[in-house]
Amino acid sequence: MDDTLFAPVNKLIQDHRILKGHLQAVVNAADAMRNGRLDDTNAAALQQALGFFHTEVPRHARIEDELLLPRMKKLLKDPSSHFAYLLEHIAKDHHEFAAMHAELAGLSEALAVRMRFNPPPADQPNPMLDRFCELAVLLQDYYRSHILVEERDIFPAVPHALTESDLRELAAEVEKA
Ligand SMILES: [Fe+2]
Ligand SMILES: [Fe+2]
To answer: Could you tell me which of 95, 67, 100 has the C-alpha nearest to residue 171?
Structure first.
């Protein structure tokens, strides 16, 4: 089997590495905001992370939801198997992540305005910042287990489950996605 057939899965794994870096940048920015010392570097890393969440994460989820998972589902012999459950679970996670990303983006925008024009004293309650910090950690935790399931349980099965012509078709569709 030539390497191009592994390209779709390799690309998804590469996306995961980049995503993990951005998730850490959001946690770092949240900590810095909490300590009242968000510097230009943290702020720029946060903006880059939000940009990646806005464009690359939906594309990544679309490739999994529309191109990869349906192909795997079609080949399931037992729809009540643990593997079938994992495929459902992964798709459900993508919906939850989309909602969390939308909330994070909204909070980040509101916080940026608030911190610039009307920063609350550090000893005052700041529920918006509390939720931003909570969400940053939650996203990182949820993605950690999501990525683990994909890379440990689902992706390694792809080259065994799909035929060479399926893999070729998948690679061509991912290239265009
Ligand atoms: Fe993924
Ligand atoms: Fe995923």
So the answer is: 67
Q: Give how far Cα 160 sits from Cα of 5, 125, 163, 168, Å.
A: 12, 54, 8, 13
Query: Residue 168 belongs to what domain range?
Result: 3-176
pTM of the model: 0.93
CA 113 to CA 108: how far, in whole Å? 9
Q: Which ligand is nearest to the CA of 16?
A: 1
How far, in Å, is the centroid of ligand 2 from the Cα of 127? 30
DSSP readout, 107-150? HHHHHHHHHHH-PPPTTS--HHHHHHHHHHHHHHHHHHHHHHHI
Distance between Cα 16 and ligand 1 center (Å): 6
Residue 53 token pair: 């969440």
Q: pLDDT by residue (tens digit) across 82-106? A: 999 999 999 999 999 999 999 999 9
pLDDT digits (tens, 9 = 90+) for 54-64: 999 999 999 99
User: Do 118 and 83 contact (CB within 8 A), yes or no?
Assistant: no
- CATH number of domain containing 153: 1.20.120.520
Q: How many domains does the chain have?
A: 1
